[in-house]
Amino acid sequence: xxxxxxxxxxxxxxxxxxxxxxxxxxxxxxxxxxxxxxxxxxxxxxxxxxxxxxxxxxxxxxxxxxxxxxxxxxxxxxxxxxxxxxxxxxxxxxxxxxxxxxxxxxxxxxxxxxxxxxxxxxxxxxxxxxxxxxxxxxxxxxxxx
Length: 145
Hints:
By secondary structure, the chain is mostly beta strands.
Protein backbone atom coordinates (compact mmCIF):
# COMPACT_ATOMS: atom_id res chain seq x y z
CA UNK A 1 0.00 0.00 0.00
CA UNK A 2 1.32 3.41 -0.94
CA UNK A 3 -0.99 6.36 -0.30
CA UNK A 4 -0.30 9.92 -1.45
CA UNK A 5 -2.61 12.44 0.23
CA UNK A 6 -1.92 15.35 -2.12
CA UNK A 7 -0.36 17.61 0.50
CA UNK A 8 3.11 16.07 0.60
CA UNK A 9 2.19 13.35 3.11
CA UNK A 10 2.37 9.61 2.43
CA UNK A 11 1.47 6.36 4.18
CA UNK A 12 2.18 2.65 3.69
CA UNK A 13 -0.68 1.55 5.95
CA UNK A 14 -3.64 -0.39 4.58
CA UNK A 15 -6.16 1.87 6.41
CA UNK A 16 -4.36 5.15 7.06
CA UNK A 17 -5.68 8.17 8.92
CA UNK A 18 -4.62 11.61 7.76
CA UNK A 19 -5.38 15.15 8.95
CA UNK A 20 -5.35 18.05 6.52
CA UNK A 21 -4.16 21.28 8.11
CA UNK A 22 -5.00 23.79 5.36
CA UNK A 23 -8.05 24.50 3.20
CA UNK A 24 -7.82 23.28 -0.40
CA UNK A 25 -8.63 20.53 -2.91
CA UNK A 26 -6.47 17.44 -2.68
CA UNK A 27 -5.78 14.68 -5.22
CA UNK A 28 -5.44 11.23 -3.62
CA UNK A 29 -3.45 8.32 -5.06
CA UNK A 30 -3.25 4.71 -3.91
CA UNK A 31 -0.82 2.20 -5.35
CA UNK A 32 -1.52 -1.40 -4.34
CA UNK A 33 1.15 -4.01 -5.02
CA UNK A 34 1.42 -7.80 -4.80
CA UNK A 35 3.48 -10.58 -6.44
CA UNK A 36 1.63 -10.12 -9.75
CA UNK A 37 2.41 -6.40 -10.00
CA UNK A 38 0.89 -3.09 -8.96
CA UNK A 39 -2.06 -0.90 -9.80
CA UNK A 40 -2.56 2.82 -9.10
CA UNK A 41 -5.87 4.62 -8.61
CA UNK A 42 -5.88 8.42 -8.57
CA UNK A 43 -8.87 10.59 -7.61
CA UNK A 44 -8.43 14.25 -8.59
CA UNK A 45 -9.71 16.86 -6.12
CA UNK A 46 -11.20 14.00 -4.08
CA UNK A 47 -10.81 15.71 -0.72
CA UNK A 48 -12.00 19.31 -0.32
CA UNK A 49 -11.16 21.05 2.94
CA UNK A 50 -13.00 24.30 3.62
CA UNK A 51 -12.68 26.84 6.37
CA UNK A 52 -11.21 30.19 7.20
CA UNK A 53 -9.44 29.32 10.43
CA UNK A 54 -6.16 30.24 8.75
CA UNK A 55 -7.29 33.88 8.66
CA UNK A 56 -6.95 36.24 11.60
CA UNK A 57 -10.36 37.73 12.39
CA UNK A 58 -11.16 41.38 11.75
CA UNK A 59 -13.18 42.59 14.74
CA UNK A 60 -16.30 44.67 14.09
CA UNK A 61 -19.50 45.33 16.02
CA UNK A 62 -22.61 47.45 16.41
CA UNK A 63 -24.94 48.22 19.29
CA UNK A 64 -28.49 49.38 19.88
CA UNK A 65 -29.38 51.73 21.42
CA UNK A 66 -26.18 53.77 21.82
CA UNK A 67 -27.76 56.57 23.85
CA UNK A 68 -30.42 56.84 26.55
CA UNK A 69 -31.12 57.27 30.23
CA UNK A 70 -29.79 55.08 33.02
CA UNK A 71 -30.35 52.22 33.47
CA UNK A 72 -29.70 51.66 29.75
CA UNK A 73 -29.83 48.10 28.35
CA UNK A 74 -27.68 47.84 25.20
CA UNK A 75 -27.60 44.88 22.78
CA UNK A 76 -24.18 44.37 21.17
CA UNK A 77 -23.87 42.50 17.86
CA UNK A 78 -20.63 40.94 16.62
CA UNK A 79 -20.08 41.46 12.88
CA UNK A 80 -16.45 40.29 12.78
CA UNK A 81 -15.08 38.49 9.72
CA UNK A 82 -12.57 35.64 9.57
CA UNK A 83 -14.56 33.15 11.67
CA UNK A 84 -13.70 34.13 15.24
CA UNK A 85 -14.23 31.44 17.87
CA UNK A 86 -13.86 33.58 21.01
CA UNK A 87 -14.91 37.11 21.90
CA UNK A 88 -13.80 39.48 24.65
CA UNK A 89 -15.92 42.59 25.18
CA UNK A 90 -14.94 45.52 27.39
CA UNK A 91 -17.93 47.79 28.01
CA UNK A 92 -15.90 50.73 29.36
CA UNK A 93 -17.47 50.65 32.81
CA UNK A 94 -15.21 48.03 34.38
CA UNK A 95 -17.23 45.05 33.16
CA UNK A 96 -16.65 42.58 30.33
CA UNK A 97 -18.19 39.58 28.57
CA UNK A 98 -17.10 36.59 26.49
CA UNK A 99 -20.47 36.11 24.78
CA UNK A 100 -20.74 36.57 21.01
CA UNK A 101 -23.70 38.97 21.18
CA UNK A 102 -24.05 40.20 24.76
CA UNK A 103 -26.64 42.49 26.32
CA UNK A 104 -25.20 44.92 28.87
CA UNK A 105 -26.92 47.35 31.22
CA UNK A 106 -25.23 50.65 32.03
CA UNK A 107 -26.42 51.93 35.42
CA UNK A 108 -24.41 55.13 35.69
CA UNK A 109 -24.48 58.23 33.49
CA UNK A 110 -21.39 58.69 31.33
CA UNK A 111 -19.78 58.24 27.94
CA UNK A 112 -18.38 54.75 27.41
CA UNK A 113 -15.70 53.41 25.06
CA UNK A 114 -16.45 49.84 23.94
CA UNK A 115 -13.81 47.34 22.80
CA UNK A 116 -14.21 43.93 21.15
CA UNK A 117 -11.34 41.49 20.68
CA UNK A 118 -12.22 38.65 18.28
CA UNK A 119 -9.91 35.61 18.19
CA UNK A 120 -9.39 32.25 16.50
CA UNK A 121 -6.44 29.86 16.12
CA UNK A 122 -4.77 32.20 13.60
CA UNK A 123 -4.73 35.22 15.93
CA UNK A 124 -6.82 38.08 17.25
CA UNK A 125 -7.93 41.58 16.31
CA UNK A 126 -9.43 44.42 18.35
CA UNK A 127 -12.03 47.03 17.40
CA UNK A 128 -12.51 50.09 19.63
CA UNK A 129 -15.31 52.66 19.43
CA UNK A 130 -14.55 55.70 21.58
CA UNK A 131 -17.45 57.34 23.46
CA UNK A 132 -19.75 54.87 21.68
CA UNK A 133 -22.45 54.60 24.36
CA UNK A 134 -23.78 57.72 26.07
CA UNK A 135 -25.89 57.33 29.20
CA UNK A 136 -27.66 60.26 30.84
CA UNK A 137 -29.48 60.54 34.15
CA UNK A 138 -33.20 60.16 34.04
CA UNK A 139 -35.29 63.10 35.20
CA UNK A 140 -37.18 62.77 38.44
CA UNK A 141 -39.79 64.90 40.09
CA UNK A 142 -43.35 65.81 39.35
CA UNK A 143 -44.66 66.12 35.84
CA UNK A 144 -46.09 69.48 34.79
CA UNK A 145 -49.85 69.78 35.04
